[in-house]
Amino acid sequence: MAADHDQVAEDFLNQIRVGHLPFGITTKEVAVFFERYGKIEKLFIKRRISRDSSVFLTHPYVFIVFEKSDSVDQVMTARPFFIDDCELFVRRCLPRTKKYPYEAFITVEKILLHTVSERDDEILPDEKSIFDYLSLTGGKIKYSERLDNKTVLVQFDDYDPVDICCLSRPHFINNQLVEIEKCSDEDQVRLQIEFQKKSQSISTAELSSTQITPEMDCQATYTVSPVPTLSIDDQITQIRLTHSDITNNLERQHEQLVASLSSEWEQTAKERIRLQRLTLDYKQEQERLAKENRKWQKLFSDSLLEKPQVQNEGETKLQEACRTTTIATEKYNELIKNTR
After folding, report:
1. How far apart are CA 306 and CA 27, in angstroms?
2. pLDDT tens digit sequence for 241-293
3. Deepest of 1, 75, 85, 190, by most Cβ within 10 A of its Cβ?
4. Model confidence pLDDT, tens digit, residues 75-116
5. For the residues of 40-80, what is the DSSP string, one character each?
6. Same CATH topology for 9-100 and 106-184?
7. DSSP annotation of 158
8. pLDDT, tens digit, 9 for 90 and up, residues 161-181
9. In the CATH hierarchy, which top-level class contains the domain 9-100?
10. The model scores a pTM over 0.90
11. Which run of H or of E encompasses 206?
12. How confident is the model over 301-310, as a mean pLDDT?
């Protein structure tokens, strides 16, 4: 993605990503499988871990661009798909933006709805309005919770409604602009909201305890900063919570990445061993066939050399047989004459 602009959601409405494909599948086979849902304009299959890598993916994936976005809706409705005992993982393609750079790479069933404005008097619409609006995605809501007046957590029964929300920005509920984003770490969101509530309560307590002493000059003007001021202990607590959240999140992501790469590498190693054995078997079979071919070529050449000699021997034997027959006939005739 270029650093100076965001990808446009409208360019991705007719695109899907299909993962967990069989190892040896071809582009034509994928096209034949999905063209029943609409005309395919482009299809790109990725078989290697990276462009310059020599390691093949055990389960390649493919990007499909349909002529119409309705084809994507039909594909997502027709899930699940199976090819050669492999259950395909199909999802919509999402744009990469500066605000949500990693949204296109994560798949979740939860979303966060929150107000765009930071004004204290602005709150989210009621649950019924939110549910009515989210029902347009076609998904079923399993769980919802209002974390505070500005944040609502919603969990669907599938990941596709979440991707539909991401592709349908901006969102207006009861004429109010509402931001919707994927929720990949619910615990971290809850910690942040709890800390914000604690900060607000501390700020309120400090403001209520502020008094003007009678010794102060009545003409002097005192103002209270609108920005909440935290004590050193609270600031340290905030830094520790933030650091702990970031560390835990990175550790979880690292563990997931290591586990995923280890599993992928193990499958790749097994597949490589299998291919090496097949290659060795094919090489031995090729050598055997080449040896047998040379044997038959030699027999054929020898038969061509022996053919004139065999023909001459046959003609000689035939002439001798004719002479023997002639002599026997003459003797037979003489015997007949002598008998008379």
Report:
1. 55
2. 777 778 777 877 787 788 778 777 777 777 778 888 888 887 888 888 888 88
3. 75
4. 999 999 999 989 999 999 999 999 998 899 999 999 999 998
5. EEEEEEEEESSTT--PEEEEEEEEEEESSHHHHHHHHHT--
6. yes
7. S
8. 999 999 999 999 999 999 999
9. alpha beta
10. no
11. helix 186-208
12. 70
Give yes or no for residue 11 having a pLDDT over 90: yes
Q: Is 3 helix (H, G, I), strand (E, B) or coil?
A: coil
Please name the helix (run of DSSP H) or strand (run of DSSP E) that holds residue 298, with its range, or none: helix 232-339
Q: Which CATH number fits domain 106-184: 2.40.50.100, 3.40.50.300, 3.40.50.2300, 3.30.70.330?
A: 3.30.70.330
At 2, which helix (H) or strand (E)? none
- Tell me 103's DSSP state: G
Cα separation of 289 and 163, whole Å?
56
H or E element, residue 17? strand 15-19
How many Å apart are CA 236 and CA 217, to the nearest integer? 36
Proportion of the chain in helix, strand, coil states, percent, rounded to 5: 50, 20, 30
CB-neighbour burial class of residue 238 (10 A; exposed 0-12, middle 13-18, buried 19+): middle
How far apart are the C-alpha atoms of 73 and 37, rounded to whole Å?
A: 9
In Å, the largest CA–CA distance within the chain is 182
SS3 238: helix
Per-residue burial over 53-84, b = 16 or more CB atoms within 10 Å of its CB, e = otherwise:
eeeebbbbbbebbbeeeebbbebbeeeeeeee
Contact 92, 164 (CB under 8 A): yes
Retrieve residue 323's tokens.
């002479």
Q: Which of 230, 232, 137, 146 is nearest to 189 (CA)?
A: 146
User: How far is residue 35's CA from residue 66's CA, in Å, rounded to a whole number?
Assistant: 9
Tokens of 272: 């490589």
Q: Any idea which residue has 């602005």 for tokens?
A: 122
Per-domain residue ranges of the chain: 9-100, 106-184
Question: How far is it, in rounded angstroms, from Cα 93 to Cα 146?
Answer: 29
